[in-house]
Amino acid sequence: MSNIPEIFGENVFNLKVMKARLPKETFKALKKTIEDGTPLDTNVANVVANAMKDWAIEKGATHFTHWFQPMTGITAEKHDSFISPSADGQVIMEFSGKELIKGEPDASSFPSGGLRATFEARGYTAWDPTSYAFIKDGSLCIPTAFCSYTGEALDKKTPLLRSMEAVNKSALKILKLFGSDAKRVTSTVGAEQEYFIIEREDYAKRKDLIYTGRTLYGAPAPKGQELEDHYFGSVKMRISAYMKDLDEELWKLGIMAKTKHNEVAPAQHELAPIFSTTNIATDHNQLMMEAMRKVAKKHGFKCLLHEKPFAGVNGSGKHNNWSISTDTGVNLLEPGKTPAENAQFLTFLVAVIKAVNEYQDLLRLSVATAGNDHRLGANEAPPAIISMFLGDELTAILEAIKDDKQYAEHGSGEMQIGVDVLPSFPIDNTDRNRTSPFAFTGNKFEFRMPGSKLSIAGPNTVLNTIVAEALDEFYEVLKDADDFNTTLHELIKKTINENWNIIFNGDGYSAEWPVLAEKRGLLNLRSTPEAIPHFADPKNVKVFTKHGVYTETEIHSRIEILLEEYVKILNIEALTMIDMAKKDILPAISTYVKELGKTAKLAKECGAEAKFEVEVVKKLSALESEIYEKLTNLETITADAAGITDIQDKANFYHDEVFTAMGELRAPADEAEKLCGEKYWPYPTYGKMLFYV
Ligand code: ADP
Ligand code: MG
């Protein structure tokens, strides 16, 4: 293993490299741009570009690319070489400030949700200096935002950067009231990434994995995750070699890969980095997913990032740990030790509670995808209901404030915010509940609903914006208060009271919870087509436009893109199921039945009973007919779906009809798999894929 501090960030044009390679004045100007967002002038950009190019070429790069995050949720790149013709018919290597700052990829094939029909066909990419440039596969990658010429965001990064600005502004206003001298507030994220690893040769035999990323058929293996022997289990040698390689790849890219372990489901693992600013965490998570796939290939594996690759065992998520902190090093969600620190902590804490309660729909829809629908609100836990876990101690403290009651640990008398010391509560006690979708874990919140494949830009854009809004509302109440502490106490008390319903410390996976949640009036948006349209609810449009995060047009474009993506994914899945049943599954059953039939006939001629053959032939023939019938039904329904023009109607139809028909086809096929001789079955089984690596 290499020397980690030495290789860490070796492929990144980071502050250390900038300082070493840029003239002092240029370095200062660039640092100011990175820290305060001040625009960079052309001369400075030229110098930076030239230094970047020299550095990249020394590292073996030949090309550069603007690396961006279109609304497909993955990253995009188009590579240009540094070569430029010289007078003598040779080439020189060039890279200008203009090329660094702005690019013009042909945008017409990226989803725009109608933005491009009404506006310009072209889009441009603009350098985001807050995220460092890096080298990947011989190309200098420049993180960029992607916009239309009329300024509409065509990507996931632009709204995220806007939301970071919103929460910065709103939090600073509040902090000022507390006498803080902070100049910048940044939202931070650590995204824990779950994934499955299977043998590449198994993957290559399954059309469903190839086309859709998940198994569309597959009978359960004799063993599942019931023994819980995989979670934190010792890592097998080949997997361990993979993880080591992956860590090294990530470290070179300046990604702080920290924790790795086996997860609950067989063949499932997790990798968590050390947190960073939301923007960088988002970029790094994209790079991490890409590296996971790439390194897997080298090891003869396939990395599955789908939210539910296998039925019957856990799916994969991406726990989004979120907090906000100041440039003075204060984590605003860290409980303090003095009355003033505590008051500030409680203010930010209840702002998050209010935000999550009032914008449950936005948080829910920010993680709504066809893949994640298998995790949330499907027949397996967790449900699609947003609630918050605070832990017993913190809940008891808030309850005491809410009801003007005495907190047991506090001794006598009621607690007065800003005057009294908050009773200390053991932080390591706060992380016990693993079933909550939104849990306070001592000094940050962990949003556990995002699916494993999702770009975390969306949920964090929502989080930043809604917290900014709650803080703004607080500011209006607090700014002219005569008696700050009393006004603050009343505000916190009122906020707790109004949002008490969202707090739930119980078992979020229990059958009782959805019933109780409904009584509490909490939203339960079970599927993507049900969740997405809430994006355009008046209160949601209001909050996004007020904070300059999305324009109304951008919201509508995103609704269209998200619903379209849902429809396309289900359509591909339906067609893949049809193809597999017709070309592989039915012929396989037929062959096996023929073999059994022949044996039975021979046996009978010898006067034997051939009980097994006869029984299985009967059962399989019946299943064969059923599969054929359900297959025909799915074909008809999928063809009907194609005729629907309204995108919301179409998404609903795919959810209600196509998805149901897919389930009806899968059931008899999985039954048949259980009866069919292993060597006749056309695909590697769950047992083989999940347990043999
Ligand atoms: P667990 O698996 O128990 O949830 P981990 O230690 O695996 O916990 O992951 C916690 C994640 O939270 C890590 O990625 C960590 O860097 C991140 N984290 C810690 N502090 C903060 C913070 N202030 N803001 C955002 N993320 C944080
Ligand atoms: Mg976690």
Low-confidence stretches at least 5 residues in length (pLDDT < 50)? none
Bound molecules: adenosine-5'-diphosphate, magnesium ion
Shape: globular
Structural class: alpha+beta
Under CATH, the topology of the largest domain can be stated as Creatine Kinase, Chain A, domain 2
- The H-level CATH homologous superfamily of the largest domain, spelled out, is Glutamine synthetase/guanido kinase, catalytic domain
The tally of structural domains comes to: 3
Strand content: 5-15%
Mean pLDDT: 93
Helix content: 40-55%
At the first level of CATH, the class of the largest domain is Alpha Beta
Return the CATH architecture of the largest domain.
Answer: 2-Layer Sandwich
Give me the number of helical elements: 23
For the sheet with most strands, the description reads: 9 strands, mixed
Terminal residue distance? 23 Å
Give the number of DSSP strands: 18
Rg over CA atoms: 28 Å
